[in-house]
Hints:
By secondary structure, the protein is α/β, with parallel strands linked by helices. It has one domain: Rossmann fold (3-Layer(aba) Sandwich). 34% of the residues lie in helices and 25% in strands. It contains six helices and eight strands. Strands 1-7-8-6-5-2-3-4 form an eight-stranded mixed beta sheet, sandwiched between helices. The longest helix is centred in the middle third of the chain and has 14 residues, at 60-73.
Amino acid sequence: MGSFSSGRFNAVTVAQTFVASRLREGDVAVDATAGNGHDTVFLARRVGAAGRVYAVDVQAEAVEATRRRLAEERLDERVVLRRGGHESLATVFPEIRKRTVAAVMFNLGYLPGGDKTLTTRPDTTLAGLSGALECLAPRGLLAVVCYPGHPGGSDESSRVTAWAESLPSSEWRVLIGRFASGGNKTPFPAIVNRAG
């Protein structure tokens, strides 16, 4: 396990930088919290026309926002977008085979511009993260952006960190991002990489 600090980048930028270092043209990637489609578009660009992105969100509003964004960017043919919970990746996307996904992204919290009372929850998030690990190919990467600043976010962030830190070091490399400013309420990334 390791940690890093940075005052220059925000948590999403750091997570995307790690993911970008792993993704290649033709890869398979998953956006487990599609939200407004920002990470979905990022992943679709990285995997290219030969790749595939699977994106899911539990909120119909988020799925529709992502669908519109993909259409505007002309990336919709690269993405399989469905409504469902991130805790059920294997059920939502039965076509994804184990150990075939190059990168999975989770951006926790609530839908920006949406109902702030509808948030990700620790139990479903931890189930989703465990399911995501089963999908990851050798050297595959899981990037989670945690938001401890909203109600319930601190507990979820702590539980995600404890989960990541409990993974066997013989199989997984873990980095937990801590930023120099902002205190305990600042969003941070957790990066989990399957060993070789």
